[in-house]
Structures are given as C-alpha cells and as structure tokens.
Amino acid sequence: MKEKILVTGGTGFIGSHTVVELQNSGYDVIIVDNLSNSRADVVDNIEKITGIRPAFEHLDCLDYAGLDAVFAKYGDIKAIIHFAASKAVGESVEKPLLYYRNNLVSLINLLELMPKHQVKGIVFSSSCTVYGQPDILPVTEDAPIKKAESPYGNTKQINEEIICDTVKSGSPIQAILLRYFNPIGAHPTALIGEMPNGVPMNLIPFLTQTAIGIREKLSVFGDDYNTPDGSCIRDYINVVDLAKAHVVAIDRILQDKQAEQVEVFNIGTGRGLSVLELIHAFEESTGVKLNYQIVGRRAGDIEQVWANPDKANNVLGWKAETSIEDTLRSAWKWQQKLREDGIQ
Ligand code: WQD
Asked: Over the stretch 206-244, which tens digit does the pLDDT of each residue have?
C-alpha cells in the first residue's frame, strides 16, 4: 500500500519538483494549494512526467476546516511537506501582516491537525535566511540565528520556533527542518520550473528572461562588496537535488531513523558562487551572451553565504549532485519552453 504524503504548496516551484520525486519513490501524493502563486496545469505536467496524477485540493492552508476535511477525506496521511507560504522578501516589508498571518497561521493549523489525524511527521521548508550574514563561512546548522532582515525571514525563524515549542510541549509529531540555500534550475523535461508572477525578484528567472529578450538588461545589485569580484556570493542548489532531499527526509521520519524529534539540515552544495561568476557560467554553458549592468546594492541583501552541507551529507544521507552548468542549462531550457508554449 502506497503511503500518503500531503504536500502543501505542491504546485509551486520547489513543491512541484518534490511531488515528482515523491511519486518516483512510490509515495501517493495529495497536493493542497491555493494557486496564489502557481497554476493548476502544473498538476497536468507532473502527470506527464511521472504518469501518475497526484490528488489536488484547491485550498488555502489558512482554512482550518478545509484542511481538517482533507485529512478526513484521504484517511491515513502519514506525513506532510509544508511549502505553502508567501516568499517575496521585498513584498514582506510592504505587507508584514499578510506574511505573518499566512506563513504562521497556515503552519499552526497543520500542527494542530496532525495529532488529530495521526499524521506522524512534518518536513518544513525553511531557509538559510535565518542565519542572516553568518560570522563564519561555510555556515553550519549550529550557527547563531540572527535578527531577521525582513518579515519574510522572520516568519521562517518563528515557524522553526513554533515547531520546536510544539514538540517541547509534548506533541507526538516528528519534524525535519530543511534550510534551503538558493534553489535554481528546472526539471530536465522542461515541463515544470520556476514561474514567478510579474517581474522576477530572484536572480535566475530575471537572468533567463533577459537572455530570451523579455527583459532588456539584468541589473547586478552591487560590485563593491568584500568578495573577490565585488558581487554577492550565494550557494545555488539544483531544484531537483533539493526535491530529493525532501524524499530522504520523509523516508527518515517514516522509517523512525531520526536521532531527535526535531532535526535541522542545511540543504546546499557547499560551494559559493558570485553573481558575476554565475552570469559567466550561464554564458559559457548555454552559449548565450547576457546583457547586464552593474547598479547599486539592493537593500536587505547579505554579502555572502554558502552552506556547510556535511550534516545533510553524512547524517541525512543526501548530497547535491548536479553541476551548476547543467542546472543553468535546465533553467534556460525551461525559459525557452515557456516561450514555445506562449506562456512567457
Ligand atoms: C541572489 C543574488 C542579489 C536579482 C532570496 C530569499 C531566499 C529565497 C531565495 C525564497 C543576490 C542578486 C538578484 C537581480 C541581482 N527565497 N540579484 N540582480 O536574495 O539570495 O534569496 O530568494 O525561497 O530565502 O532570501 O536570492 O535570487 O533574489 O538574489 O544582482 O535582478 O543575486 O543581489 O546577491 P536571495 P535572489
């Protein structure tokens, strides 16, 4: 009997890639998504990739009664992967209450419903944002959590605390917190990928939209940082590799392999790349010349962060495998597919 996994935000960028990998590993997936930042046809494309159509519930995780009904409808949901959240750093500064309500109450609803429906565990989508600018690099899981630079980052920190406090209070649930670095790229089939609404905030979608001519020029936000070439450094991780980390985490929970009731892992490659290095890597791996300009720094950006992934490699048993060149090629192939399909 296939074990059932609930994936909130399962039609989103990381969520959809994780649904594919869960299905490839034999899990039965139920997606809950309010489609506020994704499209329903992602479910069709997941089915095209795996040959299995995941169940889909068009629902907001703020709807407690609606969530309760989903757990009752599917019966024995064994675990949850919780992606559903608002995630635009800049928007969170303009609309903090929207971010606190959406990102905190949706998690609280799930944590309250888990014991009621015998859901064993939750894998939570956290972020390296919780570290702020680390004092020591590469950053490990025991690095101090710094004051968040944005309401978005603060919701990730508070979410982690909510999970830890819930477990400390005696809740039977198990939890794995995955702190992502910078997810990029797309599925090799180019059937699913990153599809930001409006003008992309993140680097790679803006870069590929520039490469295909949707955007006139890519602005590099600063080259006067204390880094080798002056531009910011990040740990860019292939989205399929990231998705696979979630399957390993679900296996760990369901097979009772956890060393503690709550575990935390950095999910990164362990390699830092600057913005300018990434641009050059894109040009070399795709043969496409990029039109870019150096402009002033973006408020809220930290200078440099990349993961020490040893704990994920050695304890979780997961390692990033895809090269940055293949990852950038997958992002470009996805952008070209969007153009072919008349979507962007
Ligand atoms: C990367 C680098 C920019 C755009 C944020 C969140 C993180 C996660 C990913 C949700 C920075 C530079 C960017 C552009 C640029 N969010 N840049 N020109 O800010 O590291 O992380 O998004 O899951 O939690 O914090 O990602 O892609 O926005 O920026 O020069 O047009 O690219 O300054 O150095 P970031 P990003």
From this structure: 999 999 999 999 999 999 999 999 999 999 999 999 999
Pocket-forming residues, ligand 1, beta carbon under 6 Å: 87, 89, 127, 129, 182, 201-203, 206, 218-221, 232, 234, 275, 298, 301
Q: Which of 131, 152, 180, 225 is catalytic?
A: 152
Q: 174-193 pLDDT, tens per residue?
A: 999 999 999 999 999 999 99
Give nearest CA residue, ligand 1 atom 23.
87
Identify the pLDDT of residue 1. 76
Q: Which atom of ligand 1 is nearest to the CA of 150?
A: 25
Residue 148 alpha carbon to ligand 1 centre in Å: 15
Report the alpha-carbon distance of residue 286 to residue 206 in Å, rounded.
16
Could you give the angle at which helices 106-116 and 151-168 cross, rounded to 10 degrees?
Answer: 20
Domains of the chain: 4-184+236-267 (3.40.50.720), 203-234+270-340 (3.90.25.10)
Q: Work out which ligand 1 atom sits closest to the CA atom of 127.
A: 24
DSSP 254: H
What residue ranges in the chain does DSSP mark as E strands? 4-8, 28-33, 55-58, 77-82, 121-127, 174-180, 182-184, 218-221, 233-234, 236-238, 262-267, 273-274, 292-295
Phi, psi of 13 (to 5 degrees): -60, -60
Q: How far apart are CA 302 and CA 86, in angstroms?
A: 20
